[in-house]
Predict the structure.
Amino acid sequence: MRTWLGLILLATAVTQAEAESLQVIGYSGELGQWDLSASVTERTVNRTREFSGPLTMRHVGICTQDGPEERTGEIRFQFSKFRSAIEATILVDGVECRYSGRLSDRYSGAMNCPDRPAVSVTIWLK
């Protein structure tokens, strides 16, 4: 019994130690007026590797008057089998948006939010 308990604890520790962390940086909007940044960690959900973490969006466009507007939220995403595509959920100010991007030297795609036109988003992972 102790042997099984020890093996289970060891397997859990190894799984947690191997969790990957990534930095997400990018921008959104036709003129790149919103900077995006997030620090995400890996977790397994229903045998699927998912990354999630807090997201900050900062408006850096030239029309900001009282300093940059900042919004916070969460990002969750999964990669395609070969990391050539990414599917994400971005939640900011109670609005859930979907992002789908393809990999070249970065992930480029569109973010779709309810009752709003699609917005271009470009992100890099490091």
